Amino acid sequence: MAYQSMPTDIGKLNRTILCYAESIYRFNGLWEGPDPLTPLISLFLIQLTVSMTVVQLLVYALQFVNQPPFVAELLGGILLGPSALGRIRAYRRMMFPNYSFKVLEPMAHLSIVYYAFLVGLKMDVRAAMRTGQKAIKVAIAGTVIPFFFGSGVYFIFVNDKSEMFGFIFWGAALSVTGFSVLMKILDRQQILHTEIGKTAVASALVNDLCSWGFLVLGFAVTSSPANSPWSLISTIAFVLFCVYHVSPALNWIIQKTPEGQGYSEFYICSILTGMALSGVITDVCGTHPMIGAFIFGLVIPNEVLEAMITDKLEDFVMGILMPVYFVVCGVRTNIDAISYNTSWWLAAVVIVLACSVKVFSTLIVAPFAQLPISDAFAVGLLSNAKSIMVLIILEAGQIQGVLSTQTYSLMVVAVLVMTMVVTPAAIWFRPVHNTEPYKRRSVQKAKSDEEFRVLACIYHTRNVPTIINLLRTSNASPKSPINVFALQLVELMGRATTMMVVHNARVAGPRNPSHIEAQADQIVAAFDNYELRSEGVQTQAVTARCTYTAMANEICIFAKEKRSAFIIIPFHKLRTLDGEMIDINPSLQSVNECVLEDAPCSVAYWLTEALPSHMIMHQTLLSCTLEARTTARHWLMHGGWLKIQMSD
């Protein structure tokens, strides 16, 4: 039989074919070949181990100088890249050969999809909508001015027309403020609840939301400039669909779940499947899968479900997957390329200006926001804190081909310097606490003709009527006024950062409030009504979200800031029908005991029901009539006992 050759497809001869490595993993161990790092899986596991180890070592080392983990993570990526260890040829060929990026890059982008989903879960859009006018003005100035500044400076380093749209990513990188990083820094330095801290955090929250808009715009414009309007329109349509259809559907499904049953693995897997599908949809729209994951996490309506998903995913994503992303960002960074066709002096000037533009923008808006110059300078300097979001924006610009290695590396170094400056600035602006005790910050030293400040802690709405009845017996008058701070204490679900929200009694709450917001509205309405029906009474309602371990500290700090002379805490036990006392929540007992130990003023337990006569508490039980108010303010309520501990 004569040999017959197969027909040749001429059209395929000039095509470029990408050949993948056949050795995904090793079958015969060391006996197959001399290099154990040739298989992709083995090499990726080594890269993963090295990146995790380096990042965790740097996090541990830099915590002694109070630097946030983000600085250590970014430094770890740079050290493993061509700027440091990558200079060693043998290391580069062994640890990061070119073919290894076929696995490394997809894993890095998978990590930021999960990271975006977690950010959406923990972000409180309602809090951003309730931001005050001062913070809104600071946020707008801190977004617009740095964006235009970064866009203008970008063209100093760019001559290629193909990189023209890189200004979007440079400007966005300077505009972004890392909300989570800033919160952790301010919380550690104990300036989170100062006026400077509140303004900086509130503006950072608004600014963080704007950064996602910049990212969508950058992807839409650089992917296909001709079709960018359709990319934006389709992405916005998907966002509206999630808000008005997906979120109510999820809420309906959650409400059908029996109370106390919890959420099974099926719920969690279904949510993650929805996240993946949302990522695919936004990728089809022309942006990026992480945009869809972020939106889907943002519209999940149930806090308990959010906390459960966060607890299951956060350690895996942040501890294992994200170090891979930092390595990829570090490998893309080459510090030597910064001085290409320019001088180091010019690069240094740009970095200094990048660190100053936030301060400049805050100083410009200060007169319009009624912000003192010193506070404006502090807020601007603290707003330099960056987070992973800025790396996502810069890396997206390089992937889209509009940021060169030079412009990318220069901005990464600027981001690192800007974030490292924030901690020393926070230490510098930390208020000096007065070591001398406030002489009249106690019940027994209060004068009847001076304002008496009371901090009323509320664990549940059932505490409100009895506390208000107690306050009414204080016999307040214009000559002997009282100022009541109603502090609603809410257990922080998940691993979000502590947040305190001050409520305006005259402003209506959200149209579709969550369970916590509905309780807050009831508390605000009750104390507002108490103020309107009383003379010499001022009230203010505040909601504090924190863990039980931090709750006592939040109460004491708030009492110091408001110069309260008296703290009222609901008792942590209830009496059953047979007269026995049962714990409401064991964690509340620990909170109450810590407040009694650390409070800067007088503290009282308030019981909604009378205790049996044979039960005596370890503190003194005071029962004084209202006539004793000339020397001290004590109350006795019918149907309840008041236990007071006097401050020293």
UniProtKB/TrEMBL annotation:
<feature type="transmembrane region" description="Helical">
    <location>
        <begin position="106"/>
        <end position="123"/>
    </location>
</feature>
<dbReference type="GO" id="GO:0016020">
    <property type="term" value="C:membrane"/>
</dbReference>
<comment type="similarity">
    <text>Belongs to the monovalent cation:proton antiporter 2 (CPA2) transporter (TC 2.A.37) family. CHX (TC 2.A.37.4) subfamily.</text>
</comment>
<dbReference type="GO" id="GO:0006813">
    <property type="term" value="P:potassium ion transport"/>
</dbReference>
<feature type="domain" description="Cation/H(+) antiporter central">
    <location>
        <begin position="484"/>
        <end position="607"/>
    </location>
</feature>
<dbReference type="GO" id="GO:1902600">
    <property type="term" value="P:proton transmembrane transport"/>
</dbReference>
<dbReference type="GO" id="GO:0012505">
    <property type="term" value="C:endomembrane system"/>
</dbReference>
<feature type="transmembrane region" description="Helical">
    <location>
        <begin position="266"/>
        <end position="296"/>
    </location>
</feature>
<dbReference type="GO" id="GO:0015297">
    <property type="term" value="F:antiporter activity"/>
</dbReference>
<dbReference type="InterPro" id="IPR050794">
    <property type="entry name" value="CPA2_transporter"/>
</dbReference>
<feature type="transmembrane region" description="Helical">
    <location>
        <begin position="199"/>
        <end position="220"/>
    </location>
</feature>
<dbReference type="InterPro" id="IPR006153">
    <property type="entry name" value="Cation/H_exchanger_TM"/>
</dbReference>
<feature type="transmembrane region" description="Helical">
    <location>
        <begin position="40"/>
        <end position="62"/>
    </location>
</feature>
<keyword id="KW-0406">Ion transport</keyword>
<keyword id="KW-0813">Transport</keyword>
<keyword id="KW-0633">Potassium transport</keyword>
<keyword id="KW-0472">Membrane</keyword>
<keyword id="KW-1133">Transmembrane helix</keyword>
<feature type="transmembrane region" description="Helical">
    <location>
        <begin position="408"/>
        <end position="429"/>
    </location>
</feature>
<feature type="transmembrane region" description="Helical">
    <location>
        <begin position="232"/>
        <end position="254"/>
    </location>
</feature>
<dbReference type="GO" id="GO:0006885">
    <property type="term" value="P:regulation of pH"/>
</dbReference>
<dbReference type="Pfam" id="PF00999">
    <property type="entry name" value="Na_H_Exchanger"/>
</dbReference>
<dbReference type="InterPro" id="IPR038770">
    <property type="entry name" value="Na+/solute_symporter_sf"/>
</dbReference>
<dbReference type="Pfam" id="PF23256">
    <property type="entry name" value="CHX17_2nd"/>
</dbReference>
<feature type="transmembrane region" description="Helical">
    <location>
        <begin position="69"/>
        <end position="86"/>
    </location>
</feature>
<dbReference type="InterPro" id="IPR057291">
    <property type="entry name" value="CHX17_2nd"/>
</dbReference>
<feature type="transmembrane region" description="Helical">
    <location>
        <begin position="316"/>
        <end position="333"/>
    </location>
</feature>
<feature type="domain" description="Cation/H+ exchanger transmembrane">
    <location>
        <begin position="57"/>
        <end position="424"/>
    </location>
</feature>
<feature type="transmembrane region" description="Helical">
    <location>
        <begin position="135"/>
        <end position="158"/>
    </location>
</feature>
<keyword id="KW-0630">Potassium</keyword>
<feature type="transmembrane region" description="Helical">
    <location>
        <begin position="345"/>
        <end position="370"/>
    </location>
</feature>
<feature type="transmembrane region" description="Helical">
    <location>
        <begin position="376"/>
        <end position="396"/>
    </location>
</feature>
<feature type="transmembrane region" description="Helical">
    <location>
        <begin position="164"/>
        <end position="187"/>
    </location>
</feature>
<keyword id="KW-0812">Transmembrane</keyword>
<protein>
    <submittedName>
        <fullName>Cation/H(+) antiporter 15</fullName>
    </submittedName>
</protein>
